[in-house]
Specification:
This protein is an alpha+beta fold. The protein is built from six helices and seven strands. It has one domain: 3-Layer(aba) Sandwich (Aminopeptidase), CATH 3.40.630.30. The protein has a seven-stranded mixed beta sheet, with helices on both faces. It is globular.
Length: 169
């Protein structure tokens, strides 16, 4: 199903609830499986209740909807010392655990979600949006570069070398 620009304007962002957590898990598990099938490094933990419930309570998890269909999932943090260390200065919003349903990829949903996250950051007085991804994920890095991000260094965490990326908002 094609998505036009008017639909993307109507993209709704909602916090994950106990009732919608299965949608979040479905989207991320689908993305993880797709990454693995392509030999790409990705998430190495399950998106189960042990992982989700504390993050739901903290208000970190979000779903993106188009016409009541869940099309994307992501996590927001307001600080990220483990990845950014002393560069963490309280001026950024952090996008983590981000995926779009595979059957909706390439329709502009990912960039639209990034812009919504940037708007969340602006509303909280943040200057940057930051994220990380496996350094070996060249296609993912290229996607973020097409969306205005630049590489800002690397960090070795969780057994992987992660590429740190950021852009001004």
């Amino acid at each position: 199903m094609a998505t036009d620009q008017n639909d993307l304007i109507n993209l709704e962002i909602a916090p994950v609830t106990l009732e919608t957590r299965h949608l979040f898990s479905e989207i991320l598990e689908e993305a993880r499986s797709w990454q693995a099938s392509r030999g790409s490094e990705g998430w190495n933990y399950p998106f189960d209740d042990n992982w989700m419930l504390p993050r739901i309570r903290r208000g970190e998890l979000y779903l993106a909807f188009l016409q009541s269909e869940s099309v994307g999932a992501f996590r927001i943090l307001w600080e990220d010392v483990p990845f950014w260390g002393e560069r963490e200065t309280g001026d950024s919003i952090y996008l983590h655990t981000f995926a779009v349903r595979r059957d909706r990829a390439g329709q502009g949903i990912g960039p639209a979600i990034i812009e919504r996250v940037a708007a969340m950051g602006r509303a909280h007085g943040r200057r940057n949006i930051r994220l990380d991804c496996a350094l070996s994920s060249k296609r993912l890095i290229a996607f973020y570069e097409r969306n205005g991000f630049i590489s800002s260094g690397t960090v070795f965490l969780g057994g992987m070398t992660m590429n740190l990326m950021e852009r001004e908002i």
